[in-house]
Structure formats: structure tokens, C-alpha cells
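Q: Given only this backbone (304 positions), what sequence would you predict?
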């Protein structure tokens, strides 16, 4: 099935004959890079039937119809999907520039975190994509992490793997890697204390749990450390810790970074009610950007 407005560029037969290269295994499936005989390159996610358990054909199709209609510069577009008795495939555009995870952690020799302006740009791109999912569609990403943010042709950050968590029937168990677990908001974790009250509602990700994951991802960008290595500290100490990782920067950079870190701290509040909405986050990031531009202009004027 091609998604709304997509032209049928290839058949299932062509897709099955494509050369496939494994890109990675995720929480609910495995992703391949497929090169079709007409030279088109796509990314194919093969969903793990075991993780999707009881999702009926109808529910799957209905859900993917709405997910396939999402179009935004900061989302990797879902172009087509396929389902047979034991096989479910999702076809996305292939993104050649890798993920934010590999950008931040890829070169182990480079211990320095990303320049803070790159952090701001990536954060704003992600916030744009999430706001669109939350506001325009009332959907939830449900699995935000640095491996699920890919870099587009202009190095814009694009979300992938979005809105699929509702299809998964099994909640990830202890075998889940510590980094993935660290993005999960406290209220969605299985060992939540008030679990017995409304067990099922506890598990499903919400727009507020997306905001939590965004906060963790922003700290990851600012520190260059994977989420399992983030220190749980009071806000002032968090600020000191992040500064110590970015020692060689001037004070004005520290000020801007502190503003970004404040956004991250607000997003990763343990209480969902205390977290801002993604739209509010986007506004905060745009204010930081505007402030940066005007302060750079002031410096240029002084120099000029």
C-alpha cells in the first residue's frame, strides 16, 4: 500500500528482489537499506511479529494510513507499507547522513561535545517535528532517542520510527539497553509505584513522555554523553557538570548553553504536569535563537 499521494514507484516483487543491507535492530523491528533495480534507495523496516502480537490487520492499516499522511520537513516520510500473514514492512526515504547518535558519539576520539549552535539547531528541528505530530495530528512519537533522529540531505534533523509504539503489545523488558530505558519517562516505566491503580494507562507513551525524552536527548547533545551516563543532579549541579564537560568555551557560550540546559531540565521533570508542551519548547528554543542572532549582530556592529 502506498501512502496518500505517493506514486507507485515499484512493486512488492521489486522490493523483495532489492539488495538489502542491515542498518540496525530496533525495539520493534529491523531496518535495512534496500537498493531497487531502478536504482532507487529506500529504508525498509521489518516489524517483529512477536512484538506486535495482537494488532489486527484493520487496526494496523488504519493506524498506518494516518501515520503515512504525516508530511513535515523534520519527519522522515513513510512512503509505503505492506502486510501479509506474518510479514509487516514499512518503507521510508533513505537518509544518507546517518543519525544524531552517530554524529554525537561516532568518533570516539573526539571527546568534545557538539558546538552549542549545532545543539540548538538539532533541538529546534526535533521540536518542530514533535510539535507537528502532537498538535496537527494528536499523535505521539513514543520512541524518541538519538538513534531515531536522522540527518537529511541538508543535515536537517528528521524524526523516524514515530507513532509506532502504540502497535507494540509487549512492553520492553529488562533486556532493553540502558540508554533506551533512560529516555523513558518515569510514568511509563513498568515499575512505576502507582502502577496498580491504572496499569494500562501507565504504559502508553503520551505527548508528555515525548517531552521527557526530548529533555534527555537535549542533555545528550549538550554533554556528548549517552543517557545512561547522565548524572541525576539538582539543576545547579547539572549546570556545573555540563560546564565542566565544555570547559574551553567562553562565558557568553556558557550563558546560551545554560538557557538550553534550562529547557532540558524543564522537559525532563519527573512530573508530567510540570513539563512544558512541545509547542512551548519550540517557542523557547526560537527565543534563544533570536537572542543569539541579535547578540551576534551587536558584536559585528561593534567590530565594524
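A: Predicted residues:
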Amino acid at each position: 500500500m502506498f501512502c496518500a499521494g505517493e506514486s507507485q514507484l515499484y512493486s512488492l516483487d521489486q522490493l523483495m528482489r532489492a539488495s538489502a543491507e542491515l542498518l540496525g535492530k530496533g525495539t520493534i523491528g529491523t531496518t535495512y537499506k534496500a537498493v531497487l533495480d531502478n536504482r532507487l534507495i529506500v529504508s525498509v523496516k521489518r516489524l517483529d511479529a512477536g512484538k506486535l502480537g495482537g494488532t489486527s490487520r484493520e487496526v494496523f492499516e488504519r493506524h498506518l494510513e494516518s501515520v503515512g499522511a504525516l508530511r513535515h520537513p523534520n519527519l522522515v516520510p513513510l512512503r509505503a507499507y505492506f502486510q501479509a500473514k506474518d510479514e509487516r514492512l514499512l518503507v521510508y526515504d533513505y537518509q544518507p547522513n546517518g543519525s544524531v547518535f552517530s554524529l554525537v558519539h561516532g568518533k570516539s576520539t573526539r571527546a568534545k561535545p557538539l558546538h552549542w549552535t549545532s545543539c540548538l539547531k538539532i533541538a529546534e528541528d526535533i521540536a518542530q517535528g514533535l510539535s507537528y505530530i502532537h498538535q496537527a495530528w494528536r499523535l505521539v512519537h513514543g520512541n524518541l532517542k538519538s538513534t531515531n533522529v536522522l540527518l537529511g540531505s541538508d543535515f536537517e534533523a528528521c524524526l523516524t520510527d514515530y507513532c509506532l509504539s502504540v502497535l507494540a503489545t509487549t512492553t520492553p523488558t529488562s533486556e532493553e539497553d540502558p540508554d533506551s530505558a533512560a529516555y523513558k519517562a518515569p510514568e511509563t516505566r513498568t515499575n512505576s509505584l502507582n502502577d496498580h491503580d491504572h496499569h494500562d494507562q501507565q504504559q502508553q507513551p503520551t505527548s508528555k513522555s515525548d517531552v521527557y525524552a526530548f529533555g534527555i536527548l537535549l542533555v545528550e547533545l549538550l554533554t556528548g554523553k549517552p543517557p545512561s551516563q547522565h548524572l541525576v543532579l539538582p539543576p545547579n549541579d547539572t549546570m556545573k557538570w555540563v560546564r565542566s564537560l565544555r570547559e574551553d568555551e567562553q562565558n557568553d557560550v556558557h550563558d546560551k548553553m545554560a538557557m538550553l540546559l534550562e529547557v532540558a531540565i524543564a522537559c525532563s521533570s519527573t512530573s508530567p504536569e510540570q513539563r512544558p508542551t512541545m509547542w512551548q519548547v519550540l517557542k523557547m528554543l526560537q527565543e534563544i535563537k533570536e537572542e543569539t542572532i541579535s547578540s551576534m549582530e551587536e558584536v559585528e556592529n561593534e567590530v565594524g
